[in-house]
Amino acid sequence: MPGLKALHDRARLQRLTVSTYQAVSGMGRRGNEELLTQTGELMANELGRLVYDGTVASGLEPVVFARPIAFNVLPSAGSLLSDGSAETTEERKLRDETRKSLDLPRLPVSAACVRVLVFTGHSMVINAEFAEPISPGEAEQILARAAGVEVVDIPTPQRAAGTDITNAGRVRRDEGVPDGRGLSYVVSGDNLRKGAALNEVQLAELVPSTAAVRAWSTSTATLRDDERVTTHRRSGTSSPPHEVVFLLSDQVKLLDVSGPAEVFAEANRHGGNYRLCYTSPGGDAVATSIGIAVDVDADTFTIGHADTVIVPGGDHLVSWPIDPSLTDAARHLATISDRVASVCTGAFVLARTGLLDGRRATTHWRHAAALAKFFPAIDVQPDAIYVADGTVFTSAGVSAGMDLALALVESDHGAQVARAVARDLVLYLQRPGGQSQYSAPLRVPVPQQSALRVAVDAVVSDPSADHTVDSLAAIAGVTARHLRRQFASEIGLSPSRFVERMRLERARELLDDGYNVTEAARLSGFRSAENFRRTFTKEYGIPPSRHQRQFGIGRRDDGPAN
């Protein structure tokens, strides 16, 4: 946000509350279509609701207004609205982009965003709490010196229309913040040249006449978004395709591409309208991880718009560094798309662009620790199948990309369509459990301290034994307190938690080998089958019986599973 960074540099921003009405037209091509649809319906059917300066615009004679107008506040339909129980996508996006623009990934931000049917741009009210006192007069001086900001008494979208300048004004002290550390002010900006041009309606001269209504409702409207033009009649033809752009590179995992692609393609059989486009930096064909060559449709850098971007993974992306052309291509797509998603290790590409900084994200369980180590600004969720943070989505390994694509379809078209797609592709609509149910047994680092090594070896060699902190300390020849410190320092777990983890790993191996739940609990050292069920479900997200159905090799001959 222009100007806010300068205020932060002076008084150290601590908390931010942003309330905004954003123009539907600011959504680019999709917003233009929504704007034209609602405007056409309003003018054709409900002319009496058209209001200007509090007066109903009526009469059959053309009326020319001196400046741009806005219809009554009409929230746009669909995914832009919420029942108030959680943040909308637009509010999360506003919060995340605010943090990113200020380079303050942990800044507490509250955002309230309503999309409205207006032509002129958007405005917002900012309430900022600072660490140090700052007066409205000093704040106005700082804002006036900030690049791209013009301080005015009453900032309005009309004033900002057609300019690059952000208007800021009505700077007031926020009396809700003590010690003069709070400010409240209004900013407004222009969205017109970002894709809101309406060729058949002059923004400054709207003519609400019956002739104009008939001309509008029956004509073909042309929308221009950047350099892409779509034409459709207002009579109600289908909406334009949802553009899904894949970013491919050599050695990409084929299933990371084909899995999500199949979900989108199947959704088209149930009312979806996805159009898939495969790209690579430079436009060359790519060789997949299994040797199959995949032709692409375009050079990534020639793509001018995308609704959804998919960045699939590959083992090569975990190596260092990633090809700069790939990160540049991902950065380009992120700037022209509504949402960005990665599959598996594709998260490393998004991480290199900085797009995941300050966000929650996941990747393949095998590489989650590396993602967290190399990119500490990311809040890595190692057990998640997929993570949605604002308009950025990341998924776990390989087949989890299909889970993510299914979630995107559900967001676009609802649960009924997603359920039909899942049924046709024999998928879980929502997969039970997290990644840890698929991971390999716990890899224990070799302890540096000899006493700790003795204790760890005792647990690993026989997890079912009656291990306590005191018994392990006696074996290691140290005090219980000293052993706890060594476990925390080198293993990152308490002794009791380490014993529990090793027992769970042993029990999981037994389940996979065909032992029933009762046998697995007894042989791995749990007090009872019920205690084992609760502990296993808490750790892996699914009960042991379901884990065995998914991963077990079959029942042993010496007893039934239970």
CATH topology of the largest domain: Rossmann fold
Give the CATH architecture of the largest domain.
Answer: 3-Layer(aba) Sandwich
The rounded Rg comes to 29 Å
| Helix content, binned percent | 25-40%
The named CATH superfamily of the largest domain:
Class I glutamine amidotransferase (GATase) domain
In total, the number of domains comes to: 3
- Taking the alpha carbons of the first and last residues, their distance comes to 59 Å
- Count of DSSP helices? 19
Based on Cα principal axes, name the global outline: globular
Strand order of the largest sheet: 15-12-11-16-17-21-20
User: Low-confidence stretches at least 5 residues in length (pLDDT < 50)?
Assistant: 46-84, 192-237, 554-562
Largest sheet: 7 strands, mixed
Strand tally: 21
Overall average residue pLDDT: 75
Q: CATH class of the largest domain, please?
A: Alpha Beta
- Percent of residues in β-strands: 15-25%
Topology readout:
Blueprint: H1 4-11, E1 13-23, H2 29-45, E2 51-52, E3 55-56, H3 89-102, E4 109-116, E5 122-130, H4 136-145, E6 149-151, H5 157-160, E7 166-173, E8 182-189, H6 210-218, E9 220-225, E10 228-233, E11 242-247, H7 254-268, E12 274-280, E13 286-287, E14 293-294, E15 298-299, E16 306-311, H8 324-335, E17 337-342, H9 346-353, E18 360-361, H10 368-374, E19 379-380, E20 386-389, E21 392-395, H11 400-413, H12 415-425, H13 450-461, H14 469-476, H15 480-491, H16 495-512, H17 517-524, H18 529-540, H19 544-551
Parallel strand pairs: 1-4, 6-7, 11-12, 11-16, 12-15, 16-17, 17-21, 18-19
Antiparallel strand pairs: 1-5, 2-3, 5-8, 7-8, 9-10, 13-14, 20-21
Helix pairs in contact: 2-6, 7-11, 8-9, 11-12, 13-14, 14-15, 16-17, 17-18
